[in-house]
Design a protein that fits this description.
Elements (H helix, E strand, L loop, with lengths): L6 H15 L3 E6 L9 E3 L12 H14 L14 E6 L13 H9 L5 E13 L4 E13 L4 H10 L4 E6 L4 E6 L1
Antiparallel strand pairs: 1-2, 1-4, 3-5, 3-6, 4-5, 6-7
Protein backbone atom coordinates (compact mmCIF):
# COMPACT_ATOMS: atom_id res chain seq x y z
CA UNK A 1 0.00 0.00 0.00
CA UNK A 2 1.11 3.53 -0.57
CA UNK A 3 -0.22 6.99 0.10
CA UNK A 4 -2.15 8.47 -2.82
CA UNK A 5 0.67 8.94 -5.32
CA UNK A 6 0.65 10.46 -8.81
CA UNK A 7 1.38 7.86 -11.49
CA UNK A 8 4.36 9.92 -12.70
CA UNK A 9 6.01 9.44 -9.31
CA UNK A 10 5.34 5.68 -9.49
CA UNK A 11 7.10 5.68 -12.87
CA UNK A 12 10.04 7.61 -11.42
CA UNK A 13 10.42 5.21 -8.48
CA UNK A 14 10.08 2.04 -10.56
CA UNK A 15 12.46 3.16 -13.30
CA UNK A 16 14.92 4.12 -10.58
CA UNK A 17 14.59 0.65 -9.07
CA UNK A 18 15.24 -0.99 -12.46
CA UNK A 19 18.19 1.32 -13.17
CA UNK A 20 19.80 1.02 -9.74
CA UNK A 21 19.30 -2.72 -9.12
CA UNK A 22 18.97 -4.24 -12.59
CA UNK A 23 15.79 -5.97 -11.40
CA UNK A 24 13.19 -6.19 -14.21
CA UNK A 25 10.14 -4.45 -12.76
CA UNK A 26 6.68 -5.74 -13.65
CA UNK A 27 3.79 -4.29 -11.69
CA UNK A 28 0.11 -3.51 -11.58
CA UNK A 29 -0.55 0.08 -10.45
CA UNK A 30 -4.22 -0.11 -9.53
CA UNK A 31 -6.41 2.70 -10.84
CA UNK A 32 -7.18 4.39 -14.14
CA UNK A 33 -5.45 7.18 -16.06
CA UNK A 34 -5.59 10.39 -14.06
CA UNK A 35 -6.18 8.62 -10.74
CA UNK A 36 -3.66 8.56 -7.94
CA UNK A 37 -2.15 5.16 -7.18
CA UNK A 38 -2.71 3.73 -3.70
CA UNK A 39 -1.89 0.10 -4.37
CA UNK A 40 0.86 -1.54 -6.37
CA UNK A 41 1.38 -5.26 -6.95
CA UNK A 42 4.74 -6.51 -8.23
CA UNK A 43 4.86 -9.78 -10.14
CA UNK A 44 7.41 -11.91 -11.96
CA UNK A 45 7.25 -11.53 -15.74
CA UNK A 46 9.05 -14.23 -17.73
CA UNK A 47 11.29 -12.92 -20.48
CA UNK A 48 12.34 -14.93 -23.50
CA UNK A 49 15.74 -13.25 -23.34
CA UNK A 50 16.32 -12.93 -19.60
CA UNK A 51 14.15 -15.68 -18.05
CA UNK A 52 12.02 -15.26 -14.93
CA UNK A 53 13.51 -13.33 -12.03
CA UNK A 54 14.09 -15.57 -8.99
CA UNK A 55 11.72 -15.07 -6.04
CA UNK A 56 14.67 -14.02 -3.87
CA UNK A 57 15.44 -11.12 -6.23
CA UNK A 58 11.79 -10.06 -6.05
CA UNK A 59 11.94 -10.05 -2.25
CA UNK A 60 15.10 -7.93 -2.40
CA UNK A 61 13.40 -5.48 -4.79
CA UNK A 62 10.44 -5.16 -2.42
CA UNK A 63 12.74 -4.51 0.54
CA UNK A 64 14.54 -1.86 -1.53
CA UNK A 65 11.26 -0.14 -2.34
CA UNK A 66 10.17 -0.21 1.30
CA UNK A 67 13.49 1.22 2.50
CA UNK A 68 13.52 4.07 -0.05
CA UNK A 69 9.84 5.11 -0.03
CA UNK A 70 7.01 5.47 2.45
CA UNK A 71 5.27 2.46 0.92
CA UNK A 72 4.32 -0.56 3.02
CA UNK A 73 3.85 -4.26 2.35
CA UNK A 74 0.36 -5.57 3.11
CA UNK A 75 0.58 -9.37 2.69
CA UNK A 76 -3.12 -9.91 3.39
CA UNK A 77 -3.97 -7.91 0.23
CA UNK A 78 -1.96 -10.25 -2.00
CA UNK A 79 -3.98 -12.93 -3.80
CA UNK A 80 -3.12 -16.45 -2.65
CA UNK A 81 -5.01 -18.84 -4.93
CA UNK A 82 -6.35 -19.11 -8.46
CA UNK A 83 -4.73 -17.19 -11.30
CA UNK A 84 -3.63 -13.59 -11.59
CA UNK A 85 -3.60 -12.05 -15.06
CA UNK A 86 -2.81 -8.56 -16.30
CA UNK A 87 -4.73 -8.06 -19.53
CA UNK A 88 -4.16 -5.05 -21.76
CA UNK A 89 -7.13 -3.29 -23.31
CA UNK A 90 -5.39 -1.88 -26.39
CA UNK A 91 -5.19 -4.14 -29.43
CA UNK A 92 -1.50 -4.80 -30.01
CA UNK A 93 1.13 -2.20 -29.13
CA UNK A 94 0.38 0.69 -31.49
CA UNK A 95 -0.71 3.84 -29.61
CA UNK A 96 -3.61 4.52 -32.00
CA UNK A 97 -4.93 0.93 -31.99
CA UNK A 98 -8.51 0.23 -30.88
CA UNK A 99 -8.99 0.41 -27.11
CA UNK A 100 -11.41 -1.78 -25.16
CA UNK A 101 -13.06 -0.95 -21.82
CA UNK A 102 -12.71 -2.78 -18.48
CA UNK A 103 -16.48 -3.37 -18.51
CA UNK A 104 -16.06 -5.45 -21.69
CA UNK A 105 -13.75 -7.85 -19.86
CA UNK A 106 -16.17 -8.15 -16.94
CA UNK A 107 -19.11 -8.74 -19.29
CA UNK A 108 -17.28 -11.45 -21.27
CA UNK A 109 -16.25 -13.29 -18.11
CA UNK A 110 -19.67 -12.90 -16.45
CA UNK A 111 -21.06 -15.41 -18.94
CA UNK A 112 -18.78 -18.03 -17.36
CA UNK A 113 -20.11 -17.65 -13.82
CA UNK A 114 -18.59 -16.35 -10.62
CA UNK A 115 -15.06 -16.76 -9.36
CA UNK A 116 -13.30 -13.63 -10.50
CA UNK A 117 -12.40 -10.10 -9.50
CA UNK A 118 -11.61 -7.49 -12.15
CA UNK A 119 -9.77 -4.26 -11.35
CA UNK A 120 -8.57 -1.48 -13.62
CA UNK A 121 -4.82 -0.91 -13.43
CA UNK A 122 -1.86 0.48 -15.29
CA UNK A 123 0.21 -2.50 -16.46
CA UNK A 124 3.81 -1.37 -16.16
CA UNK A 125 7.29 -2.69 -16.76
CA UNK A 126 10.77 -1.22 -16.47
CA UNK A 127 14.01 -2.91 -17.46
CA UNK A 128 17.58 -1.68 -17.64
CA UNK A 129 19.40 -3.00 -20.69
CA UNK A 130 23.05 -2.43 -21.55
CA UNK A 131 22.17 0.64 -23.60
CA UNK A 132 18.84 1.97 -22.35
CA UNK A 133 16.20 2.01 -19.68
CA UNK A 134 13.00 0.58 -21.13
CA UNK A 135 9.60 1.68 -19.74
CA UNK A 136 6.17 0.49 -20.84
CA UNK A 137 2.74 1.17 -19.46
CA UNK A 138 -0.81 0.76 -20.64
CA UNK A 139 -4.24 0.72 -19.09
CA UNK A 140 -5.56 -2.76 -18.54
CA UNK A 141 -7.35 -4.95 -16.08
CA UNK A 142 -6.01 -7.27 -13.44
CA UNK A 143 -8.00 -10.46 -13.16
CA UNK A 144 -7.86 -12.58 -10.04
CA UNK A 145 -9.87 -15.65 -10.96
CA UNK A 146 -10.42 -19.30 -10.36
CA UNK A 147 -8.16 -21.30 -12.66
CA UNK A 148 -11.21 -22.85 -14.37
CA UNK A 149 -11.74 -19.42 -16.00
CA UNK A 150 -8.36 -19.44 -17.75
CA UNK A 151 -9.85 -20.62 -21.10
CA UNK A 152 -12.35 -17.72 -20.99
CA UNK A 153 -9.56 -15.28 -20.10
CA UNK A 154 -7.48 -16.61 -23.00
CA UNK A 155 -10.43 -16.16 -25.39
CA UNK A 156 -10.88 -12.60 -24.14
CA UNK A 157 -7.19 -11.88 -24.76
CA UNK A 158 -7.56 -13.27 -28.27
CA UNK A 159 -10.67 -11.16 -28.94
CA UNK A 160 -8.77 -8.07 -27.74
CA UNK A 161 -5.84 -8.92 -30.09
CA UNK A 162 -3.36 -9.20 -27.23
CA UNK A 163 0.10 -10.18 -28.45
CA UNK A 164 1.22 -11.43 -25.05
CA UNK A 165 -0.05 -11.78 -21.50
CA UNK A 166 1.28 -13.31 -18.31
CA UNK A 167 -0.58 -15.76 -16.09
CA UNK A 168 0.56 -16.27 -12.52
CA UNK A 169 -0.83 -19.59 -11.28
CA UNK A 170 -0.87 -18.97 -7.55
CA UNK A 171 -1.77 -22.57 -6.69
CA UNK A 172 1.14 -24.06 -8.66
CA UNK A 173 3.42 -21.08 -7.91
CA UNK A 174 4.28 -20.75 -11.60
CA UNK A 175 4.30 -17.87 -14.04
CA UNK A 176 3.62 -18.49 -17.72
CA UNK A 177 3.53 -16.33 -20.82
CA UNK A 178 0.81 -16.73 -23.40
CA UNK A 179 1.85 -15.30 -26.75
CA UNK A 180 0.52 -15.19 -30.31
Amino acid sequence: MLPATPFEHIQEVLTGLARDTGWPVAAFAYGDVGEQVEELLLYRDPSRTFGTPPAEECDTAVRTLISTTDWTVVPERAPVDGVLVGLGLREGYEPDAPQHEPAEVAARLATHGDGRNTRTARLVSARQTAADLFWYDEVGVVLHAQDRLLPAITETAKAFAQQRFVVTDLNAQQTRVYQR
